[in-house]
Amino acid sequence: MLEVVLNVLTTPSVWMALTVLVLTILAGLAGLPLLRYLGVGQTVRDDGPKTHYIKTGTPTFGGFFFLVSIVVVYLIAGLVDGFTNPQTMLLLLMLTFAFSGFLDDYIKVRISKKGLSVKHKTILLMTFSILFTAYYLFAMPVEPFLVIPGLPQPILIMGWWKLLYAPFVIVYLFFITNSVNLTDGVDGLASTVTVVSSLALVAGGMILIPLGLDQGLLNAGMAYSAMIAAGCLGFLVYNRYPAKVFMGDTGSQALGAGLAGIALYYGAPWLLGFVGLIYVIESLSVIIQVAYFKRTGGKRIFRMSPIHHHFELGGWKETKVVLIFTAVTLVGSLIGLYLLVLVG
Known about the structure:
Blueprint: H1 2-9, H2 12-38, H3 63-81, H4 85-110, H5 118-138, E1 145-146, E2 155-156, H6 160-183, H7 189-208, H8 215-239, H9 248-265, H10 272-275, H11 277-296, H12 307-313, H13 318-341
Antiparallel strand pairs: 1-2
Helix pairs in contact: 2-3, 2-8, 3-4, 3-8, 3-9, 4-5, 4-8, 4-9, 5-6, 6-9, 6-11, 7-8, 7-9, 7-13, 8-9
């Protein structure tokens, strides 16, 4: 295992991540004044915590800081080492979901604070999910597979099983992307949690290397995991409390799509249930709140959803929410990685 770690630390992924980190910080230095000049300030939701009203006018679209950096590093690495289908498709997955988020952000700041309608947003995200699923199941250089703790060999997904697996992949991409988006509601929360989650995915790729799985998929997954972690870390320079800029749906939807794609490349979509535990909890809190509200005619389980607002209204400062939620992510990640060790 030590040899695997040393090999990974000397791979291009490390230098790609460091470059993304530097470029994201530089992009923020140049981009933050530009966003302020353009007047693309966030409109805080009317039904949110009153303490957030002061955030009205804070620039959004900050997700471009790390997205542009990732694209630049991808192009440089591709020109040096060659472009591969898995790496390219993972980037396209992130950018298509970022495009949907950008439309939502743009409408919020320029047209209507409601943003894209639920219908139009769902159509866009489902379309992009279907397109990536078609590549993943039917056009990827290798057959998709699943790794399950306790099973000696990966399960290849072939033939008619692909058609049965396709609906799960589509819903999975949609769910994870929206879950990360919901997590982006407190200064630095989505960024910090995603640093931990994506670093855990780097470790997950390292654990899977000795199993002899497709090296191209693992390399792509680890490279993007490292770049996402670096991008979020660089973005925290501007997004930590009190935030100078928000990533917006542009950034959060790209992050969700990237993490989901990486887990699928690993053949371990279940892993995000652990390393992305907070994302899942945030999403479930909204589902439970809405369902209970409708069933009881207006009663609530949580003070407010997503659940980070519940704790805010209970007296937690934003920094405490970030700290506790990050600790939960770390614990979940360790459990997930332990289960991954049991694979094979």
